Amino acid sequence: MFKQLKEWDRELFIYLNGLGIEDFDSFWIFITQEETWIPLYLVMFVLIFSSYKLKKAAIVCIGFLSSFLITFGITRIIKATVARIRPNNVESLKEVIRVLQEPTYYSFVSGHTSTSMAITTFIVLSLRHKYKWIYLFYLWPLLFATSRVYVGVHYPSDLAAGACLGVLVAIILHKVIQYFLSRISD
């Protein structure tokens, strides 16, 4: 059964990657770069500090940064343990896929997806009481994850597992941060 799932994952990757259009390559390369999203991170920090008083905002920021760092660390451990070769480095795929980037580190789980989902989920959980539109931030990890298939460096299962990991870490950290926030008087 595992072999069949891997084959479906491979075929879905080939199909989705094949939907790429050369005219959009520069857009997806831009989307997949972490530094593209620095302004979004700054907006998130501004929203935190405009939603909480200073002490509480600082604690929420610690949670925000921790969601990134913990997810990044767990992702690296999983990558090193599972050691799944990226599709762009699989010889049998090189002739049938579009490759716009060529990283060499392992594929499973997607670090772009796991960390962006962790950050987004943590922010949404922390700010949903104030901003009903905050769920729109989920467009970021969706675009980020999509870009990873488009540029040829992740299978769909890498993205799904990364998203689950990020959400799980964010939920746990949010509960921890809420505990600390409840102990601080306004």
UniProtKB/TrEMBL annotation:
Q: Which UniProt keywords apply?
A: Membrane, Transmembrane, Transmembrane helix
Q: Which SUPFAM superfamilies match?
A: Acid phosphatase/Vanadium-dependent haloperoxidase
Q: Which one Pfam family would you cite for this protein?
A: PAP2
What parts of the sequence cross the membrane?
37-54, 61-85, 105-127, 134-153, 159-181
Q: Name one GO molecular function term.
A: sphingosine-1-phosphate phosphatase activity
Q: Does the keyword Methyltransferase apply?
A: no
Q: Which residues form the Phosphatidic acid phosphatase type 2/haloperoxidase domain?
A: 59-174
Signal peptide per UniProt: none
Name by which UniProt lists this protein: Undecaprenyl-diphosphatase
